[in-house]
Amino acid sequence: MPPKVDPRDWERLFSGRRRRRGPLHTLVTALVGGLLILGLINAAPFVLRQIEISRETARPTQIALQTREARATAQQAAAQQPTPTFTPSPIPSPPVTPPPIIGRARVINGGNIRSEPRIAAETVIGQICVGDQVELLAEETFAGNNRWYLLRVVATADDCVPQRVRAGTEGWVSATLLSRPEP
Question: Which residues, in sequence order, are CB contacts of 103 under 8 Å at separation 6+?
Fold first, then answer.
């Protein structure tokens, strides 16, 4: 029976010996490296195309998020506006004559009623809903045939949103939200 080998003998026998690799090993290493480089070069257009597709699909999501953020900011600004407090006046004031009515219309697209004829978060008073009836008090036309009407809400239809204005509210609305004015 052969004697048991001491582990120190193995270390002594094989520690000084270097493994020699021949030309076949070098050839295989070069081929594998070359194939990896070619694979990366061929995959680059595919990866770039995937990045472009992901950017295109992310754009509508970003726009939707920005729109939601703008609406949330407008709602916060409307909620933070202090509510006016009215104190009774002991002296009776002269009766205020309402501005002349230039026509009547009906809301065909719901949207914002504003304190000024411009689109900005700080100008939003509230919402008007489809079916609301309004009286037109004034008309402004801006560049690009963009018409705005100063109006008073006369009657409201069904409740559509919590930020809805009440009858008697006055403000500016884009003409795209209203039906054709009737005298």
Answer: 135, 136, 181, 182, 183
pLDDT tens-digit profile of 40-66? Answer: 999 999 988 888 888 888 777 777 777
Are 111 and 174 contacting, i.e. CB atoms less than 8 angstroms apart? yes
Pick the closest to residue 156 from 177, 125, 176, 129 (CA basis).
Answer: 129
Amino acid at position 138, single letter: A
Q: Are 129 and 161 in contact (CB under 8 A)?
A: yes
36 by DSSP, 3-state: which? helix
pLDDT of residue 12 exceeding 60, the answer is yes
Residue 153, SS3? strand
- Helix residue ranges, H only, 87-164: none
Q: Where are the alpha helices (DSSP H) in the chain?
A: 7-14, 23-80
Asked whether the whole model's pTM tops 0.85, one would answer no
Name the residue with tokens 């002991």: 90
Asked if 107 and 169 touch (Cβ cutoff 8 Å), the reply is no
Query: What does the pLDDT read at residue 72?
Result: 82
Q: Residue range 8-33: average pLDDT?
A: 78
Tokens of 87: 């104190």
Q: Which of 92, 90, 171, 161 is nearest to 124 (CA)?
A: 171
